[in-house]
Structures are given as structure tokens and as C-alpha cells.
Amino acid sequence: MAREKIRIKLRGYDHELVDSSIRKIVESAKETRAKIAGPIPLPTQRRIYTVLRSPHIDKRSMEHFERRIHTRLLDIKEPTSETINSLMDIELPTGIDIEIKL
What Rg value do the Cα atoms of the chain yield, rounded? Predict the structure, then answer.
């Protein structure tokens, strides 16, 4: 029995890895003739960390580090069992967090 929609959310620190992973998923879904909505780029989460350069002297001297999390959203409408099987066989690079909702 076919499900109505599969929602895939990919997250990663490197936007090029996230985009290439989305391309792999889109290509495998198109081969099985499933309808695709997306990929939709969601807002990038930005986290800034401030660290003292020296713990004893110069408390005003600080370093700033930033971590960005890039997120993409993809909907696969009217997937078949063939689509689900092809999605299970895709190998994604490490560092990519994938969240799938049926």
C-alpha cells in the first residue's frame, strides 16, 4: 500500500554535502516516478561561542567561534514500495543527519 507522503529533513555543517545528498535522494526518487516537492532550504541555524584567549590576563581579549547548521526539506508525494526500497539503498556521507517522517 502506498503512503501519501514521505518528508525528509537533512541537516549538516557543510552545505555542499547536504546539497549533494539531496541530489542523490531526488535522482533515486525520480527514477521510480515519484512526485517530488522541494528541496526547500530552511533557515540556517547559527551558534556563536565566545572563549577567553587567556584565563589569567587580558579578560577583554576573546575569540569567537561559529557553528552553522544547514537544513533542507524534501517531500516525496505518492511514493511506491519501489521508491522506499531505492531510498533505503542510498549511501549518504558521514556528517549528514537525516530525519524521515511517514
Answer: 19
Are the C-beta atoms of 24 and 89 separated by less than 8 Å? no
Exposure string of 56-72, with b = 16+ CB inside 10 Å and e = fewer, is eeeeeeeeeeeeebbbb
Output the pTM of the full model: 0.74
Counting beta carbons within 10 angstroms of the beta carbon of residue 7, is it exposed (0 to 12), middle (13 to 18) or buried (19 or more)? middle
Report yes or no: 13 and 75 within 8 Å, Cβ to Cβ.
no
3-state secondary structure of 4: coil
pLDDT digits (tens, 9 = 90+) for 11-52: 999 888 999 989 888 888 888 888 888 889 999 999 999 988
- Whether the CB-CB separation of 23 and 35 falls below 8 Å is answered with no
